[in-house]
Specification:
The chain is mainly alpha-helical. It contains four helices and no strands.
Amino acid sequence: MNINEIGDKHRAWVLSVGWGTERPLESLAMIASEVGEAVNECRGEEPTEKLGEELADIILRTTVLARRYGIDLDATIAAKMEKNLQRGTRGRIK
């Protein structure tokens, strides 16, 4: 399953259980909330075993927002990776 398919499937489930929002700012707030939960899993010397689950939540929430607006994440991610490759380390410490 590619990321677009995951997004479509998860968005359908989220909407079916009433957890979805069609407003982008609310979706972004939910993504930020998931980032906060991931931060909490990293407060010790080492991340907890739940870090992976929180990272998955960030990705799932992001795919729902992207699919809501018809964003092809497979193509967009590939294009962004290529753009980053072309930029190299410009403006960043090696």
